[in-house]
Amino acid sequence: MKKILPVITLGLLTASGASFAADTSGPYIGAGIGVGIFSAGDYADDLGSGDPKSSGVAYNVYTGYMFNRIVGVELGYNDYSTSTYDKNDIKTKPTSISLAANLGYTFDNGLRPFALIGLSSTNLHQTGNALILDKDNTAALHYGLGLDYTPASLSGVGFRIAYQIDAFSVDSDINIKNGKLKKTSYTMGAGMAYAAVSYHF
Predict the structure, then answer these.
(1) Structural domains in the chain?
(2) Which keywords label this protein (predicted)?
(3) Which residues of the chain have pLDDT under 70?
(4) Residue 31: Cβ-neighbour burial (10 angstroms; 0-12, 13-18, 19+)
(5) Closest Cα to residue 99, out of 160, 159, 143?
(6) What pLDDT does residue 132 have?
């Protein structure tokens, strides 16, 4: 994956002289693969473990509609791979369904830097010594940055490199106070850096 992202980035930049169709509106679909990133913050500290280590391939599928060169809307399913906590029999496999505005600008050469901002429903799928109380269907803030490239010569086929994250708060009975478990709220984030291929209708 580390070799794929630089190659696509170089291709996007060197192809900037290509022409692009004037009409940039319409629907699109895409799919990407990448590297998952999971941050547990204070939860990992209170658990007595470092941040969980991600393994496997993260992926997403998405569809959207561009209203013009600047504004679009995007619906996605995101799988952030599996994360394991050191010294604890706990695994987390966060997934989310996201709905976000796609804000950016599509240049005549087909390049489009963009930002995603919206909401998602995130599920942690935690197993093992699970202590998180609301690990299912947690509301999250979905956001990201990326670059799309859709050359006219490929008849609607496009490419994307991007980073996105779902940030959310969960409750857990993890802190022991006076011999009793104490419910505490923790902020976490599940994200991915990915490369994708899309088709614009």
Answers:
(1) 4-200 (2.40.160.20)
(2) Signal
(3) 1-23, 87-88, 129-131, 133-134, 174-181
(4) middle
(5) 143
(6) 73
What residues form DSSP beta bridges with 91?
Answer: 84, 127
CA–CA dist 20, 17 (Å, integer): 9
Residue 10 tokens, joined: 């170089």
Tokens describing residue 92: 């987390």
Average pLDDT, the chain: 85
**Strands annotated E in the chain:** 26-39, 53-55, 58-66, 71-79, 82-84, 90-92, 95-104, 111-123, 127-128, 138-149, 157-177, 180-200
Question: What is the enclosing helix (H) or strand (E) of 11?
Answer: helix 4-14
Token readout for 199 is 């088709």
